[in-house]
Each structure stands twice: as C-alpha cells, then as structure tokens.
Amino acid sequence: MELFFMTLTTGIMVGGIYALIALGWVLIYKCSGALNLAMGELTLIGAYISLSFYSMGVPFILSLALSLVIGFILGILTERIFLDRLIGEPVLTVIMVTVGLSFFFKGIVELIWSTDTKVFDPPVFSLEPVRFGPIIVGQIYLWSFLAAMVLLVIFVCFFKYTRWGLAMQATADDEMAALSIGISARFVYAAAWAIAFMAAGVGGTLLGNINGLNISVGYLGLLVLPAVVLGGLNSVPGAIVGGIAIGVMQNFCGAYLDQYFPGGVKEIAPFAFMAVFLLFKPHGLWGWERIERV
Amino acid sequence: MSTTFLPCGVYHENYKQDHAWWQTKFIKSKMFLLFITLFFIIPWISDSYSLSICNQIGYTILGALGVQLLIGFCGQVTLGHAAFLAVGAYVSTLLVLEFPWPAVFVELGLAYPLSIFIAAIAAGLWCVLFGLPSARVKGFYLILTTMAAQFITVDFIITQYISQIGGRGQAFSLPPGTIKVGPWVIDSDVKVYYMMIVLTIICVVGVVNLLRSRVGRAWVAIRDNDISAEVMGINIIKYKLLAFFVAGFIGGIAGAVWISNLAAISPEHFPWFWSLWLVGVILIGGVGSIHGTIFGSIFMVVVMEALQMAVIPLADTYPKLLMDFLFIKEAAFGLAICGFLIFEPNGLAYRWWQIKNYFNLWPFSY
Questions:
Q1: Is residue A285 part of a domain?
Q2: Looking at the domain assignment, is residue A288 inside a domain?
Q3: Which of residues 73-112 of B touch A (CB under 8 A)?
Q4: Structure confidence at residue B59 as a pLDDT band (50, 70, 90)
Q5: Which range of residues forms the domain containing residue A158?
C-alpha cells in the first residue's frame, strides 16, 4: 500500500510538469490551429539554455528567468520565420513543418551541447527526501511540482485577466470576429509560440533537474501528445488533467507492470494507452466534438 | 498536375494507344536507355562505394513507396513506417536463421525469397492492425496512432522481446552465405544491387498499375473527399485498410531486402527518425507522385552523401565537424523539409513535370 501511495505522489508531481508543457501545446493549437510535433525539442532548448546559465554561476531562479526571456524571443522568431507563411495551408503541411523544425532544433542542440548527459552541478535542490507520514518524496519532485503549479496558475491568470490573454482567447474562439474588433491575429500566433517555448523551457529545466539532461528529455516532451489527446486537443483544463493522469499512469506502469513486461513498459505505456483511447474517444475528455463522418 | 501533355503532332487513334504505358517511340527508347543504364552501365562503371549509395537509394525508394501510397494517394498520414520495415526485416531474418527449412529449399536457395514474401505479408497485416483506427479517426489522430505503432513495435516489442530470441543479445548477426537467392549467394554490393533493382522495378510497376485500376481510383477519391467517395459507393474502410496492407507489404519487402546489405540487424536500424525521413523524402520529391518518390530518394541520399563529402576536407581544420556530422545532417534535413514545404510545396516532381511539358509543347506552348 505504501508503494501505491508513493507511486501516486511521484506520478502527480511529474505529471504537473507534463501538464505545464501540455499547456503550451494546447495554446498553440487553440490559437493558430497548428499541431505541433516539435514540443520535445522546445523542452530541450529551454532546459539547455537555463543549464548553461546555471553552470556559468548564475543563480538558479535567475537562469530560469533568463531562459524564459530567450524562449520568448526564440518563440516569436520561429513563428515569424517558419509558421507565419503557412497560415491557411493544409494541416499536414503545418505538421510536417513542425517535424522539420524538430529535426532542425535537435540538430542544433546536439551540435552546441553534444549528446552527453549533463547535470545541474551543484544540485539545485537538496537530496534530502521529505516525509509526509509514511510517504517519502524527493525534494526535487516537490519543488518541481510547486513551480509547475505556480506557473500554471500564472498562465491561466494571464489568459483570464490580462489584455493580451483575452486577445488570445478571442482569437481562439473566432478568428474573424477577433480581427474585426482590432486584434492582430499575427501577434496572437507569435505570442502563443512564445508562451509555448517558455512553458516548455521551464518544464524541460525541471525534468532535467530530476534525471540529468540529455536528448532523451526531448522524448519526455513528446509525452504531451498522449496528455493532450486524453484531455482534448483544445481544452486548457484538459491539458492539465491529462498531463497529471499521464504522469500517474506512467509511474504506476513502471511500478506494477515492469515485473511482468521487463524493459521499457514505462516509456511505451502512454503511447499504447493513447492508441487504444483514440479508438474509443478520439475527442478526448473535454475536446470539441466535431461531428464528422470518416 | 498528373497529366503530361503529348508532344506536338502525336495523336491517338484507338483506346489501346491511349492506355499504353509508354505512348511514343521517344519514351520507349528513353525507357530502353534507362534499362540499359540501370542494368549494365551503372554496375559496370561504379565502384563499391557508389554501388552502396545506389543500394541506399533503392532501399529508400522501396520504403518511401509505401509512405507515398498512404499519404500521397490515400490521404492517410503515417509517421511510423519504419516499424513496418522493421517487421519485414525481422520476420525475414528469423525465418532465414531459425526456421527449419527442408534441405531442398536451402539447396535451391528458395528460403530467402520465400521469407521475403512471408515477411511482406506479415508487415502488411501488422500495418493493417495499426490502420484499424483509420476507420474511426482521421487527420491528426491517425498520425498519433501511427506514431504509437513506431514506439510500440520497435522500441518495445522488437527491442525487448524479439531481439532476445536465441539469446543473441541486441543484434542478430547474419553470417556470410546465409542469404541466398536461387544459385547466387548475395555477398557483394553488385549482387545486392541487382536484387534491389529488380525488386524496386517490380514494386514501382506494381504500384503504378494498381493506381491505374479501380483500387487506385478509389484511393484517390478517398484522399480528395472521403464523403463524396462514400456517396459514390466506395467502401471506405475496406479501401483504407487495403491501402495500409499494400503500404505495409512494400515496407516489408524493403526491410527484408535491406538485411542482405547488413552484417547484423538491430532495432537501431529502424528508429523514429527513419519514419520521418521517409515522409521527408516524399515531401521533397512531391506528394502524390511516383516520380516524386524516386526523385526525392535520389535527392536526399545524394545530397546527404555530398554533404559528407564536403565535410571531410574541412575535417583537418575543424576536427569536431566530423564527429558532429550526424547532427549537421539532422539539422539540414529539418531545414530542407521546412524550405520545401514553404517555398516549393509541390516538390521536385513538379519541376520535372514543368520541364517535360516545356519540351513536349515546344514550340507552341500555348
């Protein structure tokens, strides 16, 4: 039973990070309709940037903030250079451009930072575990979860109460109406990419703190796909619930199924689950159900 | 864009001429020259390095053909085709190495050709299994399902279970002499080249003919508008699954043929990168065109080799460059996909079509 609760807590904590990255994905989809397969690489870029600053001696919080700034700039640049020309093109074209982008980013990241595993040195969070009664949680997990939650709240408040956020909501709801009341759609698209870069960067930094940073963190970024499918592609609460659910499921599979299916069941389970889930409820839990015949 | 205009002054007098594969004497002699080049001139003038590039091109064509069929002609996007290549390769390897063939089969060299066929069918059925969701979902959701196919097949089933058969560890080694087609032992690049070229031609001709038939027209109808296709009486699910089967079948052939070129086979030969690479090949070559598949394969393989050639002289001054070549290749590939999609979405095949029509319609191009 202790194992059960420990796995549950770890799952929720890791899931919080996935939720943060998934939020960025959903934003891009909601605002511009682009299905982004480069999310894994966005997490990598942000994580490596903050790692570089941290290993130069910059305090962790400051290096995280710097990676947010650079992520913002990179996001706007990416949108302006690549995605801006594709407005109105078929879905497949946009998806494949993001695939191309993912290769491009990955190649650049490997070129600059090489493929060896790097760790945050000295460790940012102390290794001493925290005890809640019988449940033991690593401090890294706890702080990552808290940071992810704080950022989630900030992002959600941003959408609900600021002018920019409201502009983004309006564009997501009805682009034509938003244009007619003077909202610049191009600005909104750029802002969505910038926020996705920032969210992914923070998520990547936190994931990198847990297990060290290498290219496979990009694979963890791909886990947002099962998460957003579970929650529904265009639902922000869905992304949060989906991210946490995927984190929990992954850890349960690692804890309980690994003895029956040795090897990588933990990595594969979200994707296998996604394939089956798509068969029965392709629009996710809270996604818009477009009625269409296939 | 698929219609090519006939040269000035050529008219058909009956339906047989209209349906003919090669409609003018000029095209016939062109094809004859191509045949001579492929079967005699290339093996004669090239050394083993350029032959190995040719083999790579052949493998890419075979792999991309199935992707082209699914994406370009049936509209079902797949991002996990390397999984089906892997199924073909592994089934064929297992059959050659582990299956107790009767002695006659081995002596006559039938084991490997038969295993290619069985592997192709197995890969086709495996592809249908992951194509089943296409009955309910389309577009982005189908992309995710095929991605799941890649991770489940290669990273889980093959890496964790299939690779353990016989206790060899990660890789199956293929001792020289195991791969035998009829009386020939496939042990040199030239022999692989001949086998590859024959199979590539068979597959390309087969697919082109299939596309000229009722099946092909049904696929194109589904791609263009699935609702009106159904209204016209096409059983959408049946034809979609058929497309998945044929694509997996060709992928299985590609995988099974490729093992003759390898000393050992391991899951690293079929990464997710390779699935995306195949999609990139048809995007660069041109979606919805068999020419595009071939041009894209040649372009990608040759350009990447040329890039490597360009890097080697620089290696003396920048030794790090050689080590990082793989990453440069990845970044260049990504940039190429983006560039082609943004600036030339019809791909190389469109340029080829323009050139051909320019000469066909000359001097009265209006």
A1: no
A2: no
A3: 77, 79
A4: very high
A5: 2-280
Q: What is the ipTM, given to two decimal places?
A: 0.81
To the nearest whole number, what is the mean pLDDT of chain B? 85
Radius of gyration of chain A (CA): 19
- B/e letters for A172-196, b = 16+ CB within 10 Å, e = fewer, are beebeebeeeebebeebbbbbbbbb
DSSP string, A188-207: HHHHHHHHHHHHHHHHHHHH
Q: Which residue segment(s) compose the domain that B60 sits in?
A: 49-361
The answer to whether B146 and B247 have CB atoms below 8 angstroms apart is no
Which one of B77, B144, B332 has the shortest CB-CB distance to A274?
B144
pLDDT cut 90: percent of chain B above it: 30
Chosen from A96, A97, A215, A277 to mutate, greatest number of chain B CBs within 10 A: A96
B24 located within any domain: no
Residues ≥6 apart with Cβ < 8 Å to B273: B330
Per-residue pLDDT tens digits for B272-325:
889 989 998 998 898 888 989 999 999 999 988 888 888 777 777 777 777 777
Q: Would residue A29 count as lying in a domain?
A: yes
A12: CATH = 1.10.3470
Mean pLDDT of A104-109: 89
CATH number at residue B324: 1.10.3470
Instruction: Output the pLDDT for position B170.
Output: 62
| C-beta atoms of B337 and A265 within 8 A | no
Residue A165 within any structural domain of the chain? yes
What is the enclosing helix (H) or strand (E) of B184? strand B184-185
A-chain residues near B147 (CB < 8 A): 225, 271
Is residue B44 in some structural domain?
no
Give the pLDDT mean for B212-231: 91
B79: chain A residues, CB-CB within 8 Å: 99
Domain count, chain B: 1
What are the residues whose beta carbons fall under 8 Å from the beta carbon of A176, sequence distance 6 or more? Answer: none
* Domains of chain A: total: 1
pTM: 0.87
> Would B114 be classed as within a structural domain?
yes
Cβ neighbors of A275 (< 8 A, separation 6 or more) are B130, B133, B144, B145, B148, B149, B152
Assess A82–B contact: CB distance below 8 Å, yes or no.
yes
Q: Tell me the per-residue pLDDT of B129-177, one tens digit each, with 9 for 90 and over.
A: 988 888 777 777 888 888 888 988 888 888 877 877 766 566 777 777 7
Give the residue-averaged pLDDT of B343-352.
87
Distance of CA B278 to the CA centre of its chain: 8
Q: Per the domain annotation, does B309 fall within a domain?
A: yes
Band of pLDDT at residue A263, cut at 50, 70 and 90? low
In which band, very low, low, confident or very high, does the pLDDT at A294 lie, cut at 50, 70 and 90?
very low
